[in-house]
Amino acid sequence: MSRSSDLYRLQTIDTELHRIQSRMEAIAGILANSSAVAAARSKEARTAEILQHARAENTRAEHAVESQREKIKNTEGKLYSGAITNPKELEDLQMESVSLKKHLETLEDRLLEAMVVLEDANANHVEAEAGLASAEDAAALQNADLTHENEEIVAAMKQLDEERETMVAFLPEEDYALYQQLQKKNGLTVVVKLDDNACSACGMVLSRSALQDAKNSNTISRCPQCGRILYAG
């Protein structure tokens, strides 16, 4: 095996990986673009947002009730501690305690309302999640062939990834570095076969010495015009 042939094989693997990755994305798009799935996904997202807001409101209501109870506790502590003997101050504390307790009732009513809203929001979100799962399952059944194809693609991709990893491990570092550099510039196709003594990428006819270099298994020969790696085949 020549150095260029190893890179050509690596390019073949990368090209196939790119092809099946594109196919996987296309399949995922087809499966995801079901109108029923889209509607269910939208509903799930909407109910999740409502649930998040309901949780925040419930937490605020809980904190408000706890804070009000603490105020009542402090006020009544002063009222019944015996430390205050002034009738006017005692009367003010009693009025404050009554006012705090009355407001506590309002806060507790708000908390109860928030708890009911939270319970409803949670139930709606659970229902929406179940609806989304059901829609996705139905779409998967309707697209059974695509699902099966996707499973085969995943298996093929795993095998190609393993093969690629093995190949890269045995490539000279400078060859792999050049391969990656050229791909950044030219895309996937950076190793090209000779076609009637010419570069099959740009069509430049090679000189005799350039052809000899391209056929030398121990060297990496590049097209003088486009810079791609030449593979004699």
Key words describing this protein structure:
3% strand; Helix Hairpins; 233 residues; elongated; 2 domains; single chain; mainly alpha
What would you say this structure looks like, in words?
- The longest helix has 56 residues, at 87-142.
- Strand 1, helix 6 (208-215) and strand 2 (229-231) form a beta-alpha-beta unit.
- It is built from 6 helices and 2 strands.
- Helices cover 77% and strands 3% of the residues.
- The model has no long low-confidence stretch (mean pLDDT 91).
- The chain is an all-alpha fold and 233 residues long.
Strands in their spatial order, largest beta sheet: 1-2
CATH structural architecture of the largest domain: Orthogonal Bundle
Low-pLDDT residue intervals, each spanning 5 or more residues:
none
**SSE pattern:** HHHHHEHE
Mean pLDDT: 91
Shape: elongated
Give the structure's gist in a few sentences:
Helix content is 77%, strand content 3%. It has 233 residues and is mainly α.
Question: Secondary-structure map with pairings?
Answer:
Elements: H1 3-32, H2 35-79, H3 87-142, H4 144-170, H5 173-186, E1 191-193, H6 208-215, E2 229-231
Helix pairs in contact: 1-4, 2-3, 3-4
